[in-house]
Structure to design on (615 residues):
């Protein structure tokens, strides 16, 4: 057996550079690069190794460890999980800064390889700078925080351990069902240790997505249930996009007369003008989609994990005899709430289910009801997004302005707060991937870094990031990275002077406005933050606008700009779309001195009666 003597870090870097992806017949690097913030736990070992492969495996410098991991996660999502990135940090705060991002990837089933530095395997210099010491367990380090938010975790304490660890890591990262974050904690002395590695370990490997076909028995049962439906409804989740099944879904829905609602992750599975597409479903859903979902007797859930925003906290599907057929590549998701499982790749599963259904179609009256509901919703929704001369426009009115200035190929990126709900209802995605939302973990601060990752995945599409002032203040440093890398974004920053969304929820549950909007928080002086000046200081072009008219002009200017542009607009913290939507289970105190809370509790207890428990 031929061998080559390398350090563990050098072997790791060479291995990653040798992994390839088959993207519709084009062979590309599976790992598009490595995000790195160096410190004493990775600069000497992995830093030297990455320098040696920089022509094949680019290294990108970021400004925040969580931010760079968000960018890597967004890259994977925009690449439909067929390409990915790695992230490396030093030990201590650099490593634990990535834990939140690991949770984002875990919840959203997205591949990212995390390579935090770790303590010395030989323990001779313990405790080293930034080392966490467990008084009762000498094997614990700060990186153990990654265990619950990693699909696979390993600590590399000997150089030869990297061989099986990387093989296991690749199996997880490329598996449609197991896909998620992998953490390989790299002991800093082990990174520098040499070993005679087999040359075969560094042979080029091309990865193609596995497409699981449905079990015959499960397929027959799913077809039987659907054929018995009088009011069938499809829920399209993120798995539709990851599978590349959007055309298959459109054909399937048209052939069988099925209305479709989209989750946050599944939005853009169908074009907004597809006859079957009723838009968003659930807590932030359209009136059209939710009306049919409430009445549906069979729900075909495709590629969705059926989280509470999709199911209205399991109170949306009100038909007492309703059945769920869950088509999902992951059995864990396919068996939730008593569903009839159809474990399969979304595209393959829809193709074979369509064949099994033959010429069967939903009753025409049901399909017609869907068409009529969609038309009524568009008429109703327009009044929330139409232009206005208001000094403080609503989020929906800002969305309307961005929509009017968008091109079909554009991508809108967002994450937490009130904007995701308004975008879910109102954004009209023209092409697959045109709507990029992190709403599985609803992570504030994802937006700008996520937009950067989307732009890296598809530089030919213009990317608009919509972000509130609260999220912007939490994490904005990757604005500077976008300028540094020449990856142009348009950032629309809505300043409602606080956490407007959670303030509305606070009031809706009977609470008094408290500690959310800046004016309701403890203060001596209210901050008057100049977001435009701040963005300009990071190298972006920055524009402060007054009202929707100036916003539309600024959006046109931003499209022509050569670098990232941040457009700041003041907005109303209280206004939101009061059409569509659905109840969401947020527990209200059983007792309170405030009558508003007691009134909210009575409404809450009434709503609880609609929840489906135990199925």
């Amino acid at each position: 057996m031929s061998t080559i003597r390398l350090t563990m870090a050098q072997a790791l870097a060479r291995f990653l550079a040798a992994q390839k992806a088959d993207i519709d017949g084009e062979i590309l690097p599976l790992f598009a690069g490595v995000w790195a913030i160096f410190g004493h736990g990775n600069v000497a070992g992995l830093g030297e190794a990455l320098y040696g492969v920089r022509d094949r495996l680019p290294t990108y410098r970021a400004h925040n460890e969580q931010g760079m991991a968000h960018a890597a996660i967004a890259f994977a999502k925009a690449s439909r999980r067929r390409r990915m990135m790695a992230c490396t940090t030093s030990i201590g705060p650099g490593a634990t800064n990535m834990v939140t991002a690991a949770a984002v990837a875990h919840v959203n089933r997205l591949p990212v390889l995390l390579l935090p530095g770790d303590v010395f395997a030989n323990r001779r210099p313990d405790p080293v700078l930034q080392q966490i010491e467990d008084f009762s367990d000498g094997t614990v380090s700060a990186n153990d925080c990654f265990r619950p938010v990693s699909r696979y975790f390993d600590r590399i304490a000997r150089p030869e351990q990297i061989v099986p660890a990387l093989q296991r890591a690749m199996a997880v990262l490329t598996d449609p069902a197991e896909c998620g974050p992998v953490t390989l904690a790299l002991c800093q002395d082990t990174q520098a240790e040499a070993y005679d590695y087999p040359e075969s370990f560094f042979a080029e490997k091309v990865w193609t997505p596995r497409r699981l076909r449905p079990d015959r028995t499960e397929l027959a049962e799913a077809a039987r249930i659907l054929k018995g439906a009088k009011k069938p409804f499809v829920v399209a989740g993120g798995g539709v996009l990851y599978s590349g099944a959007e055309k298959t879904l459109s054909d399937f829905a048209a052939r069988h007369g099925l209305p479709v609602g989209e989750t946050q992750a599944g939005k853009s599975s169908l074009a907004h003008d597809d006859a079957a597409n009723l838009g968003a479903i659930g807590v932030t859903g359209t009136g059209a989609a939710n009306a049919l979902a409430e009445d549906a007797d069979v729900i075909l859930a495709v590629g969705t994990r059926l989280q509470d925003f999709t199911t209205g906290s399991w109170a949306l599907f009100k038909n007492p005899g309703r059945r769920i057929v869950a088509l999902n590549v992951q059995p864990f998701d396919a068996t939730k709430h008593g569903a009839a499982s159809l474990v399969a790749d979304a595209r393959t599963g829809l193709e074979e289910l369509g064949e099994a259904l033959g010429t069967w179609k939903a009753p025409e009256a049901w399909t017609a009801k869907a068409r009529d509901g969609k038309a009524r919703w568009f008429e109703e929704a327009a009044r929330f997004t139409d232009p206005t001369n208001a000094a403080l426009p609503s989020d929906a009115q800002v969305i309307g302005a961005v929509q009017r200035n968008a091109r079909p190929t554009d991508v809108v990126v967002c994450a937490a707060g009130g904007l995701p709900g308004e975008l879910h209802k109102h954004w009209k995605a023209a092409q697959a991937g045109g709507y990029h939302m992190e709403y599985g973990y609803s992570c504030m601060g994802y937006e700008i870094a996520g937009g950067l990752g989307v732009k890296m995945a598809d530089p030919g599409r213009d990317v608009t990031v919509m972000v509130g002032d609260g999220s912007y203040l939490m994490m904005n440093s990757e604005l500077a990275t976008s300028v540094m890398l020449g990856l142009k974004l348009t950032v629309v920053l809505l300043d409602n002077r606080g956490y407007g969304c959670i303030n509305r929820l606070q009031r809706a549950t009977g609470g008094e406005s408290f500690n959310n909007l800046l004016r309701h928080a403890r203060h001596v002086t209210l901050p008057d933050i100049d977001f435009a000046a701040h963005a300009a200081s990071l190298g972006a072009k920055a524009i402060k606008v007054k009202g929707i008219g100036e916003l539309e002009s600024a959006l046109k200017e931003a499209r022509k700009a050569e670098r990232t542009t941040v457009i700041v607009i003041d907005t109303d913290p209280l206004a939101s779309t009061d059409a569509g939507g659905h109840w969401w289970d947020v527990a209200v105190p059983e007792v309170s001195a405030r009558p508003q809370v007691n009134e909210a509790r009575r409404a809450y207890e009434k709503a609880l009666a609609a929840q489906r428990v135990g199925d």
Remarks:
- The longest helix spans residues 364-385.
- DSSP finds 24 helices and 23 strands in the chain.
- The mean pLDDT is 97.
- The radius of gyration is 25 Å.
